[in-house]
Amino acid sequence: MKRMLLALAALAAAVPALASAAVTVKGSDTMVILAQRWAEDYMNKNPGKKVQVTGGGSGTGIAALINGTTDIANASRSMKSDEKGKVRERYSVLPTEIPVAQDGVALYVNESNPVSQLTIDQLHQIYVGDVTNWKQVGGPDQRIVLYSRENSSGTYVFFKEHVLKGDDYAPAAQTLPGTAAVVNAVAKEKGGIGYGGAAYAKGVKEVKVVGADGQAYAPSAENVKSGKYPLARPLFMYTRAKPAGEVKAFIDYCLSPEGQQLVTKVGYFPIK
């Protein structure tokens, strides 16, 4: 009888702990501010629910999804086929991809820089190191200082694929651990250029990017939604299988009208 009572007491103690288990969200630095806002609002509306959000980059989040240390991976790029294969190999299911917002990868320059637009080809030449002075693209006689994200970043991968066309970044490109660090560096460096999520563009100037029709476009809601902005992209949440339980409830909230309103408030663009 004594053993039974002890076992029941242990079980009773465990139930609250299980009930309060947090949904864990990890990954994209681009998405971390948005995910934190979602988590805060969701927890305010649902007392007793817990959502823990950390960044580290899309690659870090996807790795955590694969090894089972996060429920949701935030990613500003699509999962690669080998990453999906690892999930299937380990869990016998394919990961579920859920687009939750839209973004335009913005190009930041210092506010004193008179350059107002660039083509994809010019950006390619700048970031592979073929163009090293702003006068080569219509700006002042000033050395270009390159800032980039680290290679665990989904934005780094997206930019390499869509701007560098798979070429390597110039050795002179300074890699920084987050988009906020890129913005801060460009704000202080008159010759600086960097890239990242549109929501981070504070204290810097956004350069328009020339689209397929030859017109220059800013990463605005209209231009991202229409696809005219050439560096528009979806932002994803990934789960190991179809979302269920508390994970599904949180993702459903993110996709709800309330959740999508927060997307706009943070500075990104609704998926719906």
TrEMBL record:
Q: Which GO terms describe its molecular function?
A: phosphate ion binding
State the organism of origin.
Anaeromyxobacter dehalogenans (strain ATCC BAA-258 / DSM 21875 / 2CP-1)
Name-wise, this protein is: Phosphate-binding protein
**Record has Transport as a keyword:** yes
The family note in this entry says: Belongs to the PstS family.
Mind giving the lineage of the organism this protein is from?
A: Bacteria, Pseudomonadati, Myxococcota, Myxococcia, Myxococcales
Domain (PBP) spans: 18-258
Q: What does this protein do?
A: Involved in the system for phosphate transport across the cytoplasmic membrane.
Instruction: Tell me which InterPro entries the record gives.
Output: PBP_domain (IPR024370), Phos-bd (IPR011862), Phosphate_ABC_transporter (IPR050811)
What keywords sit in the KW lines? Phosphate transport, Signal, Transport
